[in-house]
Amino acid sequence: MTTTQGARERARSEVTAAIKEEARRQLAAEGAAKLSLRAVARELGMVSSALYRYFPSRDELLTALIIDAYDALGAAAEKARDAAGEAAPVDCFIAVCEAVRTWALAHPHEYALIYGSPVPGYAAPETTIPAAARTGMVLIGIFRDARQGPGLDELPLSAELRPEAARLAAEIAPDLPPEVAAAMVAAWAQLFGLVSFELFGQFNNVIEDRERFFRHAVTGLARGAGLR
Q1: Which residues bind DNA (predicted)?
Q2: 176 Cβ partners below 8 Å, 6+ apart?
Q3: pLDDT digits (tens, 9 = 90+) for 89-125
Q4: Where in the chain is the domain with CATH 1.10.10?
């Protein structure tokens, strides 16, 4: 790579970062549905045609923001898992859940972009899947390690649900039995339900000590899913 090429790539990277930062500011002020490439260009002092060279459409800019948000959340979950080290599976699960909550509270608009109401007229492409899966893969790893190490209680599974649970296990964790896959996904969904309730105001005038309540709740989720 020549010096000129390197300078051009750095300049492009800086402009891309500036576009994303302004778009995030607009998300906070107006919401994802009102995100406008023209408004982003205007705030950055760019002509619209110049911005289109970086993001040809609003949907491509939204996709970039969604991937960034999923990656940031996934990185927070992975960091918490790594910091937990050789902790018991329950403690590792709690640490990851608390990292998810901490990230969400620090980045409410980005959390809303990926776990809030769908953006009208936007359909996330498959390119978002690897980033979206990062946090889930951390949780799968905790259950996998528990089953291979200190033990994991396999919860009863009704005959009616078994085919769906078997399909689920085959898709997300073929080495885990259907009982574990079903319990794990239920815990995952309830984790984000707790975070969303707090972030979107459903706990207002209901729960005051939210940090302690969250820890109590996710501890119950972990044990209810069979983690020892």
Answers
A1: 36-55
A2: 140, 143, 144, 147, 169, 184
A3: 999 999 999 999 999 999 999 999 999 999 999 999 9
A4: 1-56
